[in-house]
Amino acid sequence: MSKTEYTVEDFMLDPEFKKWVLAPDEETRAYWEVFLEKHPEKYENMKLARRALINLSRNLGEISESRIEGIWTEIDTFINEPEKEQAERRTVSISSESTLRRFADRQTRTGYKASYQFYRVAGILVFAFSLGILCNFLLEYPEEEFVEVPLVYEEHSVPPGVKSTLRLQDGSRVILNSGSTLRYVKNFEADKRELFLIGEAFFEVAKDSLRPFVVKTGPVSTKALGTSFNITAYHDEPLDVALLTGKVNVALGFEKSQEIILKPGEGLNVSIGEQAHSKHQIEEEKVLAWTRKTILFEQTPIGEAIRVLENWYGVQIEVLNRPERGVLLSGKFVDQTLEGVLEGLSYSARFRFKLDEDRVTLKFDMSS
Amino acid sequence: MQIVPKLNTLPQETSPEELWLGLKSGDKHAFEQLYRKYVKVLFQLGTSITGDAEFVEDCIQELFIDLWKYKNNIKPTDNVKLYLFRSLSNRINKEKKKAFKGNEKQRQAAANFPSRLESVEVKIVNAQREEAVQKKLASILKKLPIRQNEVIQYLFFENLSYEETSKLMGINLRSVYTLAWKALSTLRKSIISVAAYLITLPLW
């Protein structure tokens, strides 16, 4: 359930909300302030929930010392004489015949009782079963929320040349870019949603403040509550986290660990090798281009551009006469063939290209 | 009756888990310590749920007698308090069901035992508590159906998690949520009526 549909009761039952009201820390404070700003219509409900929580009281009975002693004496008396009591309960038979008869009696009786019990149990089971089915139809709660499942990992790998949209069990949406792998615990655990990413993916996280959504990319983990963000974490390339909406917390697990909070419109560039990072402003169009079948190069180094193209089209690209000064490529291609893209790039960057099934050769003009 | 050594002759306070193991191996002294350690909180919980002190005392007594009787079969636990809570809860619910079937014994009986008002723990200064609302909520809580009352006790006063509460009550997580929701709904409505009362008061 989204918090925007919360009733007073739901707020009171949300552990994060409870924490905010009763024992707040910086994080919960920030979270709920932002929430309230975004959803002013929830003010009345939140106010009442807070008031109810703070005043929630019970009458506590106090037991007197004499009663504590009194009860203990009775317990003590009993446990010191259990043998006697048990002996009294047992009836000792005089003859073997009566023992056998009583045994037979008991068997028939339990037999009747058992079968009666059987119908009762069966009836209850049938009732419970049909009720269960009925509930399944009537309730639109996401079933996974409360189901306990052993840890089973689910892995999605997208080969180069293919993109894939996933809907996770918690309602979050993930678009996986070509050549990427996403691994996570099936149905997630009860207290967190943890995913491991290699490559690039765009996340639209379903709100669930009870289970933070954490994407792990090597030493860097990006934690979100309910947001949309993009992560690029290909091998041997700087890692990039771009936040579109909401709030994320990026933890850098370097020698000196660090936490960075991103605001919407901010991006974080992390160079894992150098253990360095820098913030920058993002352009939504650029970040999301790949999810809209668009290849966008803006002064992109040729190495990165080749990785993009190799992934996108599932080809191997070989570069001949690579200029020593390096080449920066620019261009925007919407739903284009590889040939179209290369042709577009070839004029400004001055190379010729040859396509041979899944092998591509770029040859730069020596003169440039 | 055997002479049991006084508590204060013990060098150190033994952990509940050790006492539990002691009970399992038939150590009567450990058993008594368990009783003395938990009788107060069990009584508090029991009376908060049922409001019937005598009944709760009986339940506690039987609970401990059974513990001793079946000590060989008790399972090791890492949370003795939760285990005892669960045992008490089971017993209360079982007895109440019985009482409901037979001659209906009202739980308002023996309501005049010493008690005090306890509110949910708040770790902020200046929490602006309102006494009228506190009293009202406590009295409404007492009138809730037992299971609804219980779930509020565990989640808000004993500060147990949903998982712990579900284990303790032997119901699934969704039922915990549903029960708590119903209880809070009743409580919430009572606040509004208090507020209305406070507003109308000055007009008299």
TrEMBL record, chain A:
The keyword Membrane applies. This is DUF4974 domain-containing protein. Keywords: Membrane, Transmembrane, Transmembrane helix. It comes from Cyclobacterium plantarum. Signal peptide: none annotated. Residues 157-249 form the FecR protein domain. Residues 295-361 form the Protein FecR C-terminal domain. It holds the Pfam family FecR. The chain crosses the membrane at residues 118-139.
Automatic annotation (TrEMBL), chain B:
Residues 34-97 form the RNA polymerase sigma-70 region domain. Keywords: Sigma factor, Transcription, Transcription regulation. Residues 136-184 form the RNA polymerase sigma factor 70 region 4 type domain. Pfam families: Sigma70_r2, Sigma70_r4_2. Signal peptide: none annotated. Belongs to the sigma-70 factor family. ECF subfamily. This is Sigma-70 family RNA polymerase sigma factor. It comes from Cyclobacterium plantarum. The lineage of its organism: Bacteria, Pseudomonadati, Bacteroidota, Cytophagia, Cytophagales.
